[in-house]
Amino acid sequence: MANLGPANTAGTAVTPTPLLKDELDIVIPTIRNLDFLEMWRPFFQPYHLIIVQDGDPTKTIKVPPGFDYELYNRNDINKILGPRASCISFKDSACRCFGYMVSKKKYIYTIDDDCFVANDPSGKAINALEQHIKNLLCPSTPFFFNTLYEPYREGADFVRGYPFSLREGVPTAVSHGLWLNIPDYDAPTQLVKPLERNTRYVDAILTIPKGTLFPMCGMNLAFDRDLIGPAMYFGLMGDGQPIGRYDDMWAGWCCKVITDHLGLGIKTGLPYIYHSKASNPFVNLRKEYKGIFWQEDIIPFFQNVVLPKECTTVQKCYIELSKQVKEKLSKVDPYFDKLADAMVTWIEAWDELNPQKPTTAKA
Ligand SMILES: O=c1ccn([C@@H]2O[C@H](COP(=O)(O)OP(=O)(O)O[C@H]3O[C@@H](CO)[C@H](O)[C@H]3O)[C@@H](O)[C@H]2O)c(=O)[nH]1
Ligand SMILES: [Mn+2]
């Protein structure tokens, strides 16, 4: 049985010219010391880190030496955003989206601090960041499913019957990676299957077809800020909120309806990381339980979202989405009225910190 990780990266040389070294930030939400970075050093050291310290701002987070980083705690967020800081969650990994907003780079990779380097079946340490970058730099194929999976990979291609008119693909906005060892299960599944570990390494990358939603996990995720950044709001979660652990899910549903509308792609599959720590299923159940029944209304809402053709930028799409959330989901719970307002606040804050031309799909 192959040792799928965590890998031993000691002595692994830093790749001489890391891809997108000056165009990508790594965003890490944390309440812990960041010793996990030691294992990622060969792959992460050349990149700039944005650390979003959650919880008690007086606590000192230790970052291993040799990394180039900026760190923001709750005091910094309040100082930078003023009243708009209310849209950034507290005491939930959703706080990570502040890092997306303050970044000045084109690409973001976000990873949890209990995610380590995995091994592929040959026992080789997986440079997850490099694979995400490859995923983002090559097109997606949302309009017609390629049965041999990612056609742009070495040793693969479009299969017979695939329309040539569609083989150019569309720009990739999101690369969604997976996890060995502790899978991202919801609390009920975790409770029923406490010992289940994911040992299945599937060597595939898939474009998620247009019109299909998916459950986006924030543990091992990369995206193009210019193409979809303003839609990567991780919602109102954690302290003072009736729900948690639906931060990445909400962002994923918003992103998918917007990328479908703007003709962009989202991929899932490789790379894998090794997720080491299962969070407490009982605590997770308390955070998730409203979401488990609310989502039976939320998913049909997103499945029926229609964005007008005048919505030609991510910001316009997102503001339109917030109006529809307020109109159609507030009857599920008053929380969605608050969330819709927070979505607008997020865009206002994003545009204030990123005063450039609105994100236009045809990049
Ligand atoms: O209050 C908090 C708690 C944690 N963090 C940081 O967020 C990530 C994830 O924390 P953890 O690994 O403990 O929790 P998981 O349940 O494994 O997280 C995954 O589940 C989903 C939560 O929405 C999401 O897909 C994953 O994050 C760590 O870096 C913690 O340090 C925090 O910032 N604030
Ligand atoms: Mn975890």
From TrEMBL:
One Pfam short name: RGP
Subcellular location(s) of the protein: Golgi apparatus
Keyword Phosphoprotein: no
GO terms classed as biological process: cell wall organization; plant-type cell wall organization or biogenesis; UDP-L-arabinose metabolic process
Transmembrane segments: none
Record key words, sorted: Cell wall biogenesis/degradation, Glycoprotein, Golgi apparatus, Isomerase
Presence of keyword NADP: no
GO terms for MF: UDP-arabinopyranose mutase activity
SUPFAM superfamilies: Nucleotide-diphospho-sugar transferases
Reactions that this protein is recorded to catalyse: UDP-beta-L-arabinofuranose = UDP-beta-L-arabinopyranose
Any single GO CC term annotated in Swiss-Prot or TrEMBL for this entry: plant-type cell wall
Enzyme Commission designation: 5.4.99.30
Site (Required for activity): 160, 167
Top-level class of the enzyme under EC nomenclature: isomerase
Glycosylated residue positions: 160
InterPro entries: Nucleotide-diphossugar_trans, RGP, RGP_fam
Major localization listed first in the record, in broad terms: Golgi
Protein family according to the UniProt entry: Belongs to the RGP family.
Known function: Probable UDP-L-arabinose mutase involved in the biosynthesis of cell wall non-cellulosic polysaccharides.
Record's protein name: UDP-arabinopyranose mutase
